[in-house]
Records
---
Amino acid sequence: MPKPVSGFSKKNKEEKIDWLLSNYLSHLPEAKNTLKKYWNADSELQKLHDDFIENTLSNYYLPFSIAPNFLINNTLYAIPMVIEESSVVAAASNAAKFWLDKGGFSAEVISTQKNGQIHINYYGDTKSLKNFFNEIKPLLIHAVDNIAENMKKRGGGLLDIELLDASQTLEGYYQLHCTFETLDAMGANFINSCLETIAKTFETEARKHSEFKYEVYPEVVMSILSNYVPECLVRAKVSCPVTQLSQGKIDGKTFAEKFVRAVNIAKSETRRAVTHNKGIMNGIDAVILATGNDFRAVEAGVHAYAAKNGYYSSLTHATIEDETFNFWIEIPLALGTVGGLTSLHPLVKLAFEILQKPNAKQLMQLVAVAGLAQNFAAIRSLVTTGIQKGHMKMHLMNILNQLGATEEEKRKTVQHFKDTTVSHTAVVNYLENIRNS
Ligand SMILES: CC(C)(COP(=O)([O-])OP(=O)([O-])OC[C@H]1O[C@@H](n2cnc3c(N)ncnc32)[C@H](O)[C@@H]1OP(=O)([O-])[O-])[C@@H](O)C(=O)NCCC(=O)NCCSC(=O)C[C@@](C)(O)CC(=O)[O-]
Ligand SMILES: NC(=O)C1=CN([C@@H]2O[C@H](COP(=O)(O)OP(=O)(O)OC[C@H]3O[C@@H](n4cnc5c(N)ncnc54)[C@H](O)[C@@H]3O)[C@@H](O)[C@H]2O)C=CC1
């Protein structure tokens, strides 16, 4: 029975591993070796990774891959992707190749504003709070002068502070809604530092202000950025005459109509919308991870945006107008090309080199395109061959590895399934057959 541990964080790496082995893994003699096998031989590099997070025991590899042939705003990119799921990179590459001779993808950044809130309790007269806020607003803005000096020099910083009365929703609840331009940084740390400084000034000033009689002062509950960034938006698009969309025996117009229908189903039905958007996130998350950005922040913000109209809906849209097929995505993305892990992780640095050193706006465009491409490939499969044919073709090697197939067995199985749909059972059966023959 494992025991609670005190001072675990103070132990060194070997001690932490030994504690883990004796408390949870004593039945697995090879466990220590498994953890150590993934250490990098370069001890400096290993130390760098150890320090990214806390209580590090080993490294957790994911494949670093690329999807080539992305023509975006007339520049050709190979997009780095980090993901565990087979067929995602193939699908992205497939879509990139498909659109390459049709003008490629266009993308534009619509807005770049981020935001954060100081959440306030106040049970006094709203008018007093408003008077106080209006009077001290310049002080609040100047409170961040030091923190924001460099950001301001670059053309960013704190943009505005508004007092919002949310007491109708939650009794006594008000907000200082602050907006920011953080340029090439995602900005979480910058925004949080600004918010905490503003909050401190706000409370200090409130304590000595004549508006608040009988000691009913506004009180700060917490200060934190929001990962909902609908004012930091990017749009990516593909478009072509429907005649260019024929798929094998399916003519272009029929394909386009089926495709638009599939998108409209995702726009109107939550269960489908969630899977549809999961497919989009296959592409987005993979680029977010490869570029060392915060995938939890992006996921949370994007899904909230999908529900902006009060119900969860598709992040992509499709129309046919004058025999032209249009397919686009519009999503909020707060990304950094500086800060966070971006200048620390050697593979992230390499990813930025592969992407031709984008700034944050360009990265927003690339990520949106990756999401759109991914969705195009998935819907294209769904409305033609079905998803399993292509997906399971890519997943075949994982199944074979799970089943411990030899190189010769792999060769034979891949050959066998060239024209046959892959399923786990079918592979197990085929492998049994060749092993018994
Ligand atoms: C899987 C494919 C691409 C096969 O597609 P295919 O037509 O059999 O491919 P192909 O062998 O004719 O090759 C054509 C191109 O596809 C790419 N490609 C093809 N194979 C590879 C490979 N091994 N490695 C790298 N790239 C590959 C590559 O660009 C290649 O060009 P080439 O490199 O030869 O010049 C296609 O069927 C497809 O796009 N399927 C969609 C797969 C997908 O969306 N997977 C995501 C997982 S499923 C999911 O999570 C989400 C979902 C689907 O539920 C979302 C939703 O419901 O909306
Ligand atoms: N809720 C959330 O999403 C939270 C996320 N985080 C984490 O915060 C990190 C991101 O925070 P950041 O403040 O972006 O990173 P950071 O703290 O590394 O700061 C980046 C800094 O780079 C400097 N800089 C240099 N050149 C710049 C340019 N061209 N444009 C803008 N800034 C430039 C600025 O001083 C900026 O503050 C991520 O690791 C994220 O996971 C932290 C707290 C909460």
---
Amino acid sequence: MEYAINDLDELAIPYAIELIDVTVRLGNRDILKSIHLTIEQGGIFALLGPSGCGKTTLIRTLVGRLQPLNNHNGPRRKISILGKHTHAFGQIVGFMPQEMALHSSNTIEEELFFYGRLVNMSNEKIKQRYQFLINFLELPHERKSISTLSGGQQRRVSFAIALLHEPKLLILDEPTVGVDPLLRKKIWQHLTEITMKNDVTAILTTHYIEEARQANIISFMRYGNLLETGRPNDLLLKHEQQTLEAVFLELCEGSHRVEMQCHTQEKVHDHKSLTIANKICHSFQSVRCSCCMRESCCPTLRSCARPYLGRSLCALLIKDILKFQRNPFMLIIQFLVPILQIALFCLCVGRKLSNIPFGFISRETIGSGSGSELILNKIDRNIFKIIEYKTIDEAQRLFDVGYLSGIINIGENFSRELIEKATNCSFSNVNKYNDSQFTMYMDQTNRQMVYTIAEEFIRIFKTIDVDYHLGFFTSTPMNQESLFKLAQFHNNLPEIEYTFTHFMIPGIILSVIFFFNVALTALSLVIEQSDGTQERIPSRGSLLYSSLLCVIQGFCGMTFGLVISTIFTTEINAHQITMSIFYPVLLLSGIVWPLEGQPIWMRTVTEWLPMTKAIDAMRGILLKGWGIQHLIVQQAFWITFIWSMVFLILTLFIFNCRRL
Ligand SMILES: Nc1ncnc2c1ncn2[C@@H]1O[C@H](COP(=O)(O)OP(=O)(O)OP(=O)(O)O)[C@@H](O)[C@H]1O
């Protein structure tokens, strides 16, 4: 029967592992230097060498966790496991990494079930295997949590996972570390048995050179080079030594001499001289490898992963369910907090402002048909909470202390002027009206508020024009230019000086300090001073009050931190709750969007949160030059102090309850 070349390739038994000209660089150092190694299937291959020689690097390269250098000048680089690309081995390989790589919250049983499902084992099969492995590896009760196991026990669980699905190839990084001599003997016996009976290949690394006598093939490694590879007895005979340790010593001295020679002859560093020992690296049997390097032409690549995709998803799902069952608090954090945060965002940010407290003074006699009454009737009472005052001084005082967000001051000739402006289209008359009868004061530090007020008054003046056309306002004829004149009322608004950044900065400063607690208070202020954040604020107020407010807010943050630390015992939970609270506080305290944008019922609660008044006060101090005599500043200090006391009492209470 005739075979085409490709058919022969398909039939050939692939090597267990095949490395051709593999160089791995980590940082700026070549950790593996042009490694050539081919191992046939069946038997134990032990990689020996001192700490730091590159054993783990070789293993990690084999399993695809490290990528070798592309060496275009040398022979074609190749890495394969059982004829497959290193990323495609899936079910056929059992891998035990040097690090634990275990889910510490799982029990031994759950961990074995998790990995069993990942490789598509049936529950019965997993049960049967884990009972065997628990006995064989002398593991504690299967319901014991991994986090409570000793380091050695955890390594044995990791070893059990590698053996669980009875793979054709075992890649084990130091499987016998931390294992007592008796169990070590049992492990070697088991490996010998499965490699002989089931044609399994075990590739392992070890520090214990003498235990490697039980391996079929061993390879000595030093400084990223394979010094020599062969059967243990053959190496002993060849080097006429009694122990493998002595062989290794001799090889090391030999390689050292070669390196020294290279050095003294001032030869250029070249791969051939450095990998002189690699030349004696063997291919145990020259069976042709039928696998190909490119993923696209590897027929088994997908078939390894696809059949148990569903089972893998199931394993991941079960793992997460168990995790949530054990820690329901995490469930709240993971699912409810994002929902809450989105809901709060929708409630607090981007909404139209409402209930803005506005002073209204009119020196006109308010009666039917007067301009003042017209304006008053047109003001949207959902947006503005209009409070009428007799004198501008009275309103101005309340405006200055932050009780009012703006004032409308209407002069006694407003109605007459309104009609005159509406009917007189001549630009030359504009100066005549400069001492306007309609004056508006606004809190310019709140940019969103300025927009809302301006927008609302433009709307009001536009509707006055509509009223005229409908005949409600006056019988005097108006033309297009008179409309323009009416719109010019808007020019009476003060020029906007502050940006959105100015609005945000006071809140950001306080939230940073609050959440990073009192220890960072001084530091944050220093940072803000040094990185120029404070320079961006045209600070008008006392640095003493703003600093004091920062300190007391920091103290409040610290007491809040104390409450968290008494409630939660794990770092992760404490961290999660702090993170979960940060965003809602940011939204609810009016840092991003004015409080006037929140529904009124919500505002009555949020204005008493620890940071809300403090942020308002901080804006007042930094942007408007407020002092301690301002009611909001006083409220800010009191509210922060009361919250701090509440948090402290709560901490003591929880602490005492826990001790009982
Ligand atoms: N990510 C990295 N970046 C830079 N160098 C690394 C990195 N990982 C490992 N190395 C270096 O590579 C060398 C080989 O490390 P490797 O872990 O392969 O040694 P090893 O033979 O397995 O040692 P041990 O037996 O102690 O585990 C060491 O000198 C190590 O410092």
